[in-house]
């Protein structure tokens, strides 16, 4: 049977950018930028993306396309009779756990979207927004409902297939996302006092920069580009032979980075214009922003648009996370696509229940000092994700080999591509070492 494939270049870019652009760009990037002093952090982030992100992304795409297989099958095909395919198992486990926590936050977003369309959110006094957020996250049945909704939408799209599901919906949703962002930017930068926010974003103050922010930037670049856990390998396997992988990667990375910056341009000018603090952390979009929207003319309209935008960004990422394990089960265990998607979605939902409860009845339960939600997030994003990234770069750099990777990237020499030396050094040395540093840092083995 012919493998399901993305039908067009725009389809590939929309799907891969859809995976990359997510809560990481609109929720996390602005708040870690806020915490790390703004422009100087962005500068470091850009260096990480250009040096390491591009190289790892193009490597993952080439792995997937050459092997024509899912994230575990790819290692098996390119290095038969070795244990490398366990890297794919790790990827499946990681994407599965990330999906459980991701769908919870996406569920909060959907709930905020609903309460902004009904106008309820604008009736809450700014001082009460923090407790509103806490009440919502602690309301277990409500959060269960909204995260289940996220999982059902995700499963529906994935069941429809690569071309008729993932590609089709990404092609519709990504342009809507861009247009929404542009409308919101226009609103935000035309507010009185918006310049201070722009200055915060674009005028670097390097004194704010610490070694810790550098590792945070590098870690976030992996997360934001969906690297290190098989998503890009899997999508690579759906890309036609004639496409130019290097140019596709650059486009996806550019889109991801531009959206992260645009999200900053939506958020910070508005936050500064209304005299709020930029460093609120994870609650920036759930507590600070609703207060900002309340002060704005037609605030609830812009607020609904904003949460629609975040919701779209989240769904195009959850489909890529689910696709990793769906393609794994369909190819390695010959399960039917629909069955695999339903089975996995049920699993993700079950896994998310203890994490949801950890904001409510189980808030006292601590494992290694972390709540269940934080533990899932920590294991997946800070331990498994970097390990997956290190293994993937070592595999491409040393096992499968940069010559083979390069052959696939250049379509057997059809596309000239001068970066071989640079590519070779980064994937063999810089990427694994740099990611290893993230791992040491996030496991507290080194303290900065
Ligand atoms: N990149 C997405 C974001 O920025 C999240 C995501 C989707 C992801 N798939 C992934 C992160 C795979 C790591 C690996 O929100």
Describe the structure.
Helices cover about 75% and strands about 0% of the residues. The chain is mostly helical and about 450 residues long. The protein starts with 8 loop residues before the first helix and ends in a 6-residue tail after the last helix. The radius of gyration is 21 Å and the shape is globular.
pLDDT < 50 runs, ≥5 residues: none
Percent of residues in helices comes to over 70%
Number of helices, where a helix is a run of at least 4 consecutive DSSP H or I residues: 17
Find the count of extended strands (DSSP E, 2+ residues): 0
N-to-C order of helices and strands:
HHHHHHHHHHHHHHHHH
Ends distance:
53 Å
Structural class: mainly alpha
What sort of overall outline do the alpha carbons produce when their principal axes are compared? globular
What's the multimeric state? single chain
Average residue pLDDT: 94
Please indicate the percent range of residues in DSSP E strands (runs of 2 or more): under 5%
Bound molecules: tryptophan
Radius of gyration from CA coordinates: 21 Å
